[in-house]
């Protein structure tokens, strides 16, 4: 008997379709869902009979574990309660997206231990679990609605090429699954990159290169610290070059070589900045006296993508912090105000050279204190 096929491509989807997918999964059916990479078979991961059915349908070896699929990072945290700095960074930057992270789940508090032992060996054969957040609106809606764990694997017979359309799924395994949601061709038409992290560490290896290349993954894994003021022409640009100088001196390298030799990135932006404005002449003069340069600086406005991407964000005043959090309250855990106890770093605009010098000194003093903190060093240097 062939699977039922529900068309999403022509009509889109609604809550009824999402509920029908969740109900089918709850009832133990094998449900094919579209993703941005390839089509996948989803099953409820806490049902031994269903998981055995999935293994038989794919003709797959028990030695190849299934991935757990989630709607967001918060749900993953129940199964992976502790991530390394780099794993968490990649999760924040690339979920949802074409990447699978294989992470240590061997924690007493992990929800993985609520899954029957007979199933865990197919999901966590050792101490690690593969986790994925696919970037597809319908599938994410299904994952959000489900109140049980969902295992996901490519919708094909073991050893065959991945299916990137529902038509290919029908031809390959249409008689082995129960329900197929057809959303046309996959956007990327290539499987996700799979990264395995050494136990609780920042060291990973790519065991399958997918749409995101290995070199891109290396760059995504590097830390980024963002400095924010209003116009991005004086305070935050000065903070950016001063920060680079502090770390470069500590590491015994030239500031211009910092990113290449350490992978640490410093950027600045403004809440009301215009694109491509030069640094304030006074700011340029002050940092030049420090042996630094702002001659190539161009201003950038704060963007949601930049706020998402940054590991830590240092604002010049409490007002800047409040403005960022009004845009994205979910980033509150990584936004800090420099010199918060004294009201922040005052705007030197319109002031004398002495005012700018005082501002630069205060920024340096505050950054030296911030960079000595354990939290900063853990993120910047994985210490």
Key terms for this structure?
four-stranded parallel beta sheet; ten-stranded mixed beta sheet; alpha/beta; Rossmann fold; 2 domains; DHBP synthase; 38% helix; 383 residues
Description:
The structure is a single chain. With 383 residues, this protein is of the alpha/beta class. It has 2 domains: 4-218, Alpha-Beta Complex (DHBP synthase), CATH 3.90.870.10; 224-381, Response regulator (Rossmann fold). It has 15 helices and 14 strands. The strands form 2 sheets. It has a 10-stranded mixed β-sheet, sandwiched between helices. Helix 13 (318-327) links the parallel strand 13 and strand 14. The N and C termini lie far apart (57 Å).
Number of extended strands = 14
Globular, elongated, flat, extended or rod-shaped: what is the shape? elongated
Q: How many helices does DSSP assign? A: 15
Query: If you average the pLDDT, what whole number results?
Result: 95
Question: Could you give the order of strands across the largest sheet?
Answer: 1-8-2-3-7-4-6-5-9-10
> What's the main sheet like?
10 strands, mixed
CATH class of the largest domain: Alpha Beta
End-to-end C-alpha gap: 57 Å
Radius of gyration: 25 Å
The CATH architecture of the largest domain comes to Alpha-Beta Complex
The total tally of domains equals 2
Percentage beta strand: 15-25%
- Order of helices and strands, N to C? EHEEHEHHEHEHEHEEEHEHHEHHEHEHH
């Amino acid at each position: 008997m062939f699977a039922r096929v529900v068309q999403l491509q022509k009509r889109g989807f609604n809550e009824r379709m999402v509920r029908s997918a969740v109900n089918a999964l709850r009832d133990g059916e094998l449900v094919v869902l579209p993703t941005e990479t390839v089509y996948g078979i989803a099953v409820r991961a806490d049902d031994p009979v269903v998981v055995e059915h999935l293994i038989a349908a794919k003709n797959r070896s028990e030695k190849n574990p299934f991935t757990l699929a989630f709607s967001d990072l918060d749900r993953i945290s129940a199964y992976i309660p502790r991530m390394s700095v780099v794993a968490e960074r990649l999760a924040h930057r690339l979920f949802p997206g074409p990447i699978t992270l294989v992470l240590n789940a061997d924690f007493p508090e992990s929800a993985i231990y609520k899954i029957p032992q007979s199933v865990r060996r197919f999901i966590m054969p050792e101490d690690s679990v593969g986790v994925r957040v696919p970037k597809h609106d319908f599938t994410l809606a299904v994952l959000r609605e489900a109140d049980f764990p969902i295992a996901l694997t490519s919708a094909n017979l073991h050893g065959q090429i991945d299916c990137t359309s529902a038509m290919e799924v029908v031809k390959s395994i249409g008689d082995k699954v129960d329900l197929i949601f057809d959303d046309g061709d996959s956007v990327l038409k290539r499987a996700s990159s799979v990264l395995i992290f050494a136990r609780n560490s920042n060291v990973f290896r790519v065991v399958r290169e997918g749409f995101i290349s290995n070199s891109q993954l290396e760059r995504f894994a590097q830390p980024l610290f963002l400095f924010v003021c209003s116009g991005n022409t004086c305070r935050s640009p000065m903070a950016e070059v001063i920060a680079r100088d502090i770390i470069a001196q500590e590491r015994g390298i030239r500031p211009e070589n910092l990113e290449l030799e350490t992978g640490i990135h410093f950027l600045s932006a403004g809440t009301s900045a215009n694109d491509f404005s030069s640094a304030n002449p006074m700011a340029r003069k002050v940092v030049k006296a420090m042996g630094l340069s702002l001659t190539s600086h161009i201003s950038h406005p704060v963007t949601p993508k930049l706020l998402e991407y940054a590991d830590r964000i240092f604002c010049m005043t409490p007002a800047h912090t409040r403005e960022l959090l009004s845009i994205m309250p979910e980033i509150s855990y990584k936004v800090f105000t420099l010199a918060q106890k004294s009201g922040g770093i005052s705007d030197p605009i319109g002031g004398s050279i002495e005012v700018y010098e005082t501002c630069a000194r205060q920024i340096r003093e505050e950054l030296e204190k911030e960079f000595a903190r354990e939290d900063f060093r853990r993120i910047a240097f994985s210490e």
